[in-house]
Amino acid sequence: MVFLPLPADAIPPLSDNLSWDLSLRSRAERRDDLDFDEEVSDNGLKIWSRGRIGLNYAMGEGSKARIVYQYNNLQNLSTLGSESQKTKQDLVEAYITRNDEGSTLTIGRQKVNKGAQRLMGALEWANTSRSFDGVRLSNGEWDFFAGQLALNPVSNYDVQVGLAANKNQYGETMLIYKSDSSKANQQFTHTGPTGMISHYTLNHRFDQKMGKVRVEAEGSIQWGRKYGADLEAWAGHAKLSTPVSGSMTAFLEGNIATGGSSDGTINTFDNLFPTNHLFYGYGDRQGLSNMTSLSGGVVWQARKDLSLEISAHTFSLYDEEDGWYGVGGGMNKIGGVNAIDATGNSGKDIGSELDFNAKWRLDNKTMFMGGVTVFQPGDFVKSFVNGTVSDSTWAYVQFSRKF
């Protein structure tokens, strides 16, 4: 199924306190040589379509209710000639919120976006996206949330989350608690026991312009229990961006997250609930676990309605005896095998990625996007390929429309 634009007056007016909205999105993705083996036929085309309809009810005295229903469709076409189709229906949002003297209380199913979404985001790039059932109280300075994962591309729903955040002159500081007793968390470990996850993450994010240079920095430390062992991990991010002309901005950034284990303690950083498509290459091969990366690029606002971006990324393992983790938190597989060499003999070099991305806003409600990525495998990835090593490419085009 592919959604096409509808006229702007397709939604009839409702009463003064009752309104509704509609959003449609369709994306075609082509990926070649997923496992970097030229001799294995694993090229594929996927067509993702998503429609959402929202109902809003103004209850008076600063209160309102919102419900959003979502319909997803995936058509999966492979080079082997096979075709599959999946559909899914969900309630993305279903909450009541009240604003009172600068504070906002929200109860029910809701999205939770924090900071740049490196640890906590709605993951809107995915067709399913991510929502929580819970209670959130926030004002301009403090933000509190407690709830349970309700909607997620990875079906690990026995996950409880607590969050407390404070904004100040130095940025925003967050403390995030995660408890995961679901069976799905077993996919995130490569050896040893599986089981309960219960840990805390202390994070601070700084984002400020200093003259013409914008400085972003984010650091996290993590502690608790994971798979029956102690967890001690950390991660960091730093980015500098500056205009190089009236319409072009250049950026340089680095990312790091610990991995491995020592003396029975797990050191692999848990990426929590991120929107990783924004950060570590548009090809979505890398997550913030057991990794180091350097990236640079330029964003060109070619016209008021058209922006172009080109960027390059290099990826390495933090600990060569731990594995290569993907955007969903689990370990990447190459040829059906977990990408880990416990001996460390395969080295740390994961590879590099070159990205091109374009965004064209037809108007303030309609957008077209498209892009191409090329991932060149490094020595670590090559060690898992039995046949002829090849680059992996990914390309997409996307249309979205809001009413």
What is the radius of gyration?
Answer: 22 Å
CATH class: Mainly Beta
Q: What's the CATH architecture name? A: Beta Barrel
Query: How many angstroms does the end-to-end distance come to?
Result: 19 Å
Largest sheet: 18 strands, antiparallel, barrel
Give the % helix: under 10%
> How much is the average pLDDT?
91
Global outline: globular
> What structural class is derived from the secondary structure elements?
mainly beta
CATH topology: Porin
Total of DSSP H or I helical runs spanning 4+ residues: 1
What proportion of the residues form beta strands (DSSP E)?
over 45%
Strand count: 22
Number of domains: 1
Low-pLDDT residue intervals, each spanning 5 or more residues: 1-9, 186-193
| SSE succession | EEEEEEEEEEEEEEEEEEEEEHE
Describe the structure.
With 403 residues, the protein is mainly beta. It has one domain: Porin, CATH 2.40.160. The chain is 1% helix and 58% strand. The protein has an 18-stranded antiparallel β-barrel. A two-stranded antiparallel sheet has the order 14-15. It has a two-stranded antiparallel sheet with strand order 18-19. The chain is globular, with a radius of gyration of 22 Å. The relative contact order is 0.13. The N terminus is likely disordered.
